[in-house]
Amino acid sequence: MERSISAMIQSLFTKLQSTSKHKEWDIGLTTAQMRALRFIWQRSDAGLPTYQKDIEREFGIKGSSATSLLNNLEKNDWIRRESVAHDARLKSIVFAPRVAGVISQLGNITGFLDKCLRSSLTDEEFTVFCRCMEKMQEAIEDNREEISGGFDELVRLVRG
Question: Could you tell me if 80 and 146 lie in one domain?
């Protein structure tokens, strides 16, 4: 029987999530929120402003999902959105003061996790893995409409 690529990716994703899932309630952040905070921190460290469109692009999510994610972070005092001088419609995402220590520790954890994963592969395997991931992402993008249509049909069948 042929192994399912999507099932293997989902299994790895589940393992990655389960390493932190039981702890997320202790700090009041979901895995998605922690990833977003880390992304914002990396951009800030590089001297780059972060806007909602950057979140949408980085995580491949729709505007409404990014809005919900950012609203929850703002509501719980992790971030603030501030108007930008050159365009009053644009809001820059900045951190609330308490975030620095959290992001530093999150960086330590994800750095260790990346080191563990990377050490499990040779240089050649890592190069092949990266290229395979790129090709699979391209395949999804190239077939997005058909995949989405399949799920639309599934919903139609389920709802009768």
Answer: no
